[in-house]
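Researcher: Here's a chain I'd like modeled. Treat it as a single chain, no partners, no ligands.
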Amino acid sequence: MTTTTTRYTVRRFRVRGEPPEPEGAEFLKALHEHRFQPLGKGDGEEESAGWITAQHIYDTDFTAEKLLWGRYVRFALRMDRRRVPPKVLAAEVEVELAAWREANDRAQVPYTRRREIRQQVKDRLMASWPPQSASYEITWNPRTQRLYFHGTSDAAAEELARRFRRTFALELEWLHPFALAHLQCEDVQSENRLLHAEEDVWCLLE
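Model: Modeled as a single isolated chain. Structure tokens:
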């Protein structure tokens, strides 16, 4: 079976716990406090993640009008990553090593100096290298506690769960196919219990 490697366009989650009212100030404040913060130039950070509205990737001004969509709440998770391609870094380092060998009339660069040059080159490139951005829309029904995450990345799903916990103090349970089948069985059992209860009532009335 290959269920563990199946790719999904939308991942479904069940939200564990009581969420704040989406229309309330507490909900908007929680999103604002954990909003996306852009990576700064030359700050050494390689990744940043946070909430944005569903309008576009630059919008972190959360309002009820932007979030509410009928019975659903819509916003998004943005993840930026700055990473210099390994081949680019290796080529730039080699240029600097060649310049050092020529300037010092040496055939080899000492190990410690090689490490220093590599770090200097990486810092220089990172300071100007543009980050790659990805955003994943979230559709959440607080009443049914169902959440739909429009993304296939495992790393993004893990970041979603961590950030959800920090923002709302709520846990996310991934509803993979086996979990969904189990829920459907629970729903059927609940319906059967209701039918039996109704039959018992009718028997008593008779």
